[in-house]
Write a structure and sequence with these properties.
Cofactor: Zn(2+); Mn(2+)
Largest sheet: 9 strands, mixed
Helix content: 25-40%
Keywords: Hydrolase, Manganese, Metal-binding, Zinc
Radius of gyration: 24 Å
EC number: 3.5.3.9
Order of helices and strands: HHHEEEHEHHEHEEHEEEHEEHEHEH
InterPro entries: Amidase_Cbmase, ArgE/DapE_CS, Bact_exopeptidase_dim_dom, Peptidase_M20, Peptidase_M20_dimer
Number of domains: 2
Distance between the termini: 30 Å
Pfam families: M20_dimer, Peptidase_M20
Structural class: alpha/beta
Number of helices: 12
Strand content: 15-25%
CATH topology of the largest domain: Aminopeptidase
CATH superfamily of the largest domain: Zn peptidases
CATH architecture of the largest domain: 3-Layer(aba) Sandwich
Number of strands: 14
Shape: elongated
């Protein structure tokens, strides 16, 4: 064979190192990678990706949502398509692998197929989604919504910190946002969507496994809760007569933490707090905090919400406090397709790795793509579970293992497609 798994794994590593320098930061190792949608850094990365794709014999196009799509064509023009990919954008000062690794690993897959003259009865479309994180326009899952046909044109009116709208930014990027609806794939032409991504958690590393198979993408809900008390002089109001909103908020934080620790498949956090009047000698009158709950099972998350709100009401009432709670965001959990999950497990096993199934506690492009087709995910371990941080790290040999799993999956899907 003219190309080995090790060789294409090493190529993926080199591509990842090169991609990290298309960033608003100067030193990815120290400052992380900052790459936002429809910026010069995004454009420069896509030019590099285009070069790499075309060198592999792929046809490349930019759609009107700023997604770059490279096709490794099947010898059968009327064949269906397997979509692979992930997002190119990052959080501010993020890591080198979150998102972009899921673009470059499929390119390594294509390189292996090309080097070894392996043909498939379906097309491979590798997608660099324009915007999953929503860092610039709060346009979460922009790219994948375009392909899935669920993009809301109202998103084009959202603006960045400089007042530039998403629509204006896409036009400047060379897109025609008024034609985004034309870029959606048709369900009948797609086999499935498969994403590779770093785990963003510690489980695979703890179990010494290079890859794992994802069962579901978590459901998420966020609340804005304001505890209402009464301000007063901190030196003159007796402790027993106080209505201290911050003390009540502290009790809310404890309740959230305790509930999540005691409930299987539930995680949560209070990540933001605003206190008023916020004086050193004033009893807090209002404290506003965010509450986030996540679970791969929506019934667990919703039941936890009901339990938590009842506990909060009971606790704050006993302290003479009231509260106002608003649900500000809710995204249902999405299960990965059972048949594709099974195919990935078989491919992991055939690659000499013990299959490990785990759920994703973070959101991914599959949340949008499931409206179009069946979805599957393959996780790669990351050091310490660190993500969204310059210290994000993977092992080069895990890229090799992942490419082997992807090649095996494609071979198995080829047999499945031929039998359909």
């Amino acid at each position: 064979m003219s190309g080995s798994f090790t060789q294409v794994g090493e190529q993926a590593w080199q591509w990842l190192e090169a991609a990290a320098h298309y960033s608003e930061t100067d030193d990815p190792a120290r400052e992380g990678v900052t790459r936002r949608c429809a910026t010069p850094e995004h454009h420069a990365l896509l030019e590099a990706l285009r070069d790499w794709m075309e060198a592999l014999g792929m046809t490349v196009r930019l759609d009107n949502g700023a997604n770059l799509i490279g096709r490794h064509a099947s010898p059968h023009p009327e064949a269906r398509t397997l979509l692979l990919g992930s997002h190119q954008d990052t959080v501010p000062h993020g890591g080198k692998y979150d998102g972009i690794m899921g673009v470059l690993l499929p390119l390594a897959l294509v390189k292996y197929l090309k080097d070894n003259a392996i043909t498939l009865p379906f097309h491979l479309d590798v997608v660099a989604f324009s915007d999953e994180e929503g860092t610039r326009f709060s346009s979460t899952l922009l790219g994948s919504k375009v392909l899935a046909g669920t993009f809301d044109a109202a998103m084009l009116e959202t603006t960045d910190d400089e007042g530039i709208s998403l629509g204006q930014a896409l036009e400047a990027f060379g897109c025609r946002p008024e034609r985004i609806a034309e870029d959606a794939y048709r369900p009948e032409e797609v086999i499935a969507f498969l994403e590779t991504h770093i785990e963003q958690g510690p489980q695979l590393e703890r179990e010494a496994l290079p890859v794992g198979v994802v069962s579901a993408i978590t459901g998420i809900e966020r609340h804005r809760l304001t505890v209402l008390g009464r301000a007063g002089h901190a030196g003159t109001v007796p402790m027993a007569m106080r209505q201290d909103a911050l003390v009540g908020a502290a009790e809310v934080i404890r309740l959230v933490d305790t509930l999540c620790r005691e409930t299987e498949d539930l995680v949560g956090v209070v990540g933001k707090i605003e206190n008023a009047p916020n004086g050193v000698n004033v009893i807090p009158q209002t404290t506003t905090l965010s509450i986030e709950l996540r679970s791969p099972k929506d019934e667990i998350r919703r039941r936890a919400r009901e339990q938590l709100m009842a506990q909060i009401e009971d606790s704050l009432t006993r302290r003479g406090l009231t509260f106002d709670a608003q649900l500000t965001y809710e995204q249902a959990a999405v299960a990965c397709s059972a048949w594709l999950k099974g195919e990935l497990e078989d491919s992991v096993r055939e690659s000499g790795i013990t299959p490990r199934v785990l759920f994703s506690g973070a959101g991914h492009d599959g949340l949008a793509m499931q409206s179009l087709c069946d979805i599957g995910m393959l996780f790669l371990r990351c050091a310490g579970g660190v993500s969204h941080h310059p210290d994000e790290a993977i092992q080069p040999e895990d890229l090799t293992a992942a490419v082997q799993v992807l090649v095996t999956t494609c071979r198995n899907l080829a047999r499945r497609e031929a039998a359909a």
